[in-house]
Amino acid sequence: GAAALALSYYIRASGLFLIPGLACYLAFKREWKRAALVLIIAAAVLAPWVLRNRGVEKSADTYFAGQFLAKDFYDADKGSAGAGDISARIAKNAARVSLVEIPAMLAPQVKSVLGAEIRSFARSENAGARELPALLLRKPEPAPVAALICLAAIVFLSLVVSLAGFAKDVRAGPALSHFIFVSFFSLSLTWPDYWFHFRLIMPVMFFMWLYAAAGVEAIAGKLCGKNPNVLTAAVLVLLFTAGITSLVPNVKAHFRNSSAAARGERFPGLDDEWKSYLDAVLWLKTNTSGNAVVMSRKPAITFIESGRRGADYPYTLNPSIYYNYINSRRFDYVIDDGFKWTDTSEKYLEPILRVSPGAFELVYSARPEGASVYKIIRGKLPLKAGLIENDK
C-alpha cells in the first residue's frame, strides 16, 4: 500500500499528499512500527526520482521543494515564501475551495457563472482570502438578486451537506479513507495559490460526492423523520440533473472538434495562440537538428511535438542569470510564444531578446500576433549585465 501511494507521485506531484494519511491512520491505531515502515518504503520508492532530478537540475530553485516554497514561481526575484506567505496561501485556497470548488462539485454551473472572477482572484498577488466574497459580488455586470440568492444558497448548502455527510461517516468509525481524505485535502491547501485548480483536489472528489450523498440522507432524516427517502431522492436527482446539464456544452464542443479532426483540420479545438505555438514547434522539427536544445514556455509540449529537448526560461529580469542559464544548458533556440493567457514571455523573455539583439537571430516568425523562433548565438551573449527595468 505504501509503495502504491508513493508511486502516485510519479503520475502527479500531489500524490505525495496521500502518504501521510496512511502513516497517520496506522499511528492512530497505535501501530507505530507499521507507520514507520510506511514512511521508509515511501522514501525508498521516491528516492530514485529525487536523486535523478538532482543530477539533471543544476539549481536548487528548480527542485520540487524550491518551486513549492517560492513566493512566486513566476517571479524568481521575490525569493522564498515565509511562514506568513504559506499561511496566506492556505487561507486563500481554503476560501476558493469552500466558496467555489465544493459548490461547483454539486452544481457545476457555479464555475461558468464565476469563471472570470475565479481567475482574477487566483492570479492576483494582492487578493487574500477575505477578498473573494467581495470579488464574487463585484461582477462587471451585477447579477440579478435572485441569482445571487441562489448562488449563496448553493454555497451554504453544499458546505453544510458535505460536512454533515463527513461527520456521519466518521461517527460510524474512523477509517483509512477518512485519513487519506483529510491528509490529501488539507495538504493540498498549501499548494501555491497561482497553481491551485480543481484538478488538484480531483483525486478526492469521489469522497466528496459520497459525503454529499450521506449528508443529504442525514439532513433528510432530520427533516422527514423515519421516511427521508423521497426528499433524499429528490435532492440527488436535482444534483444529478445539474451535473448532466453542465456537460452539454462540453459534449457539443467535443463533437465539433472530433468532426474537424475527421475532416483533416490541424489542431482542432485550439485557439490561434496555441495553433501558432505548435506551428513554431513543428518548424523546429522540420528545420533543426535532432540534437537541438530549445528554451520555451512549454518544454514538455515542445519535446512531444518536435522531439527537441529543452526547458523553460527563467522568470527573472536579471540578464546575467539568463546568460548563465543559456550557456550552462547549451540552448540552441528559443520560442517567443506570443501568449496572451500569460504575461511571462512579455515580462521576462522579450526584454532579454531586446537588450541582446546580436545574440538572438530571428529564424521563424508568425508575427505580429503569433509565435517566433530565435537561434541563440551563445558566443555573442554578454559576459556581464545589469538588471533590466521593466514595469510590466
Spell out the blueprint of helices and strands.
Elements: H1 2-11, H2 19-28, H3 32-56, H4 64-68, H5 83-106, H6 109-123, H7 131-137, H8 145-171, H9 176-188, H10 198-201, H11 205-224, H12 229-262, H13 272-287, E1 293-295, H14 299-306, E2 309-311, H15 319-329, E3 333-336, H16 344-355, E4 360-365, E5 372-376
Parallel strand pairs: 1-2, 1-3
Antiparallel strand pairs: 3-5, 4-5
Folded structure, characterized:
The chain contains 16 helices and five strands. By secondary structure, it is mainly alpha-helical. Strands 2-1-3-5-4 form a five-stranded mixed β-sheet, with helices on both faces. α14 links the parallel β1 and β2. The longest helix is centred in the middle third of the chain and has 34 residues.
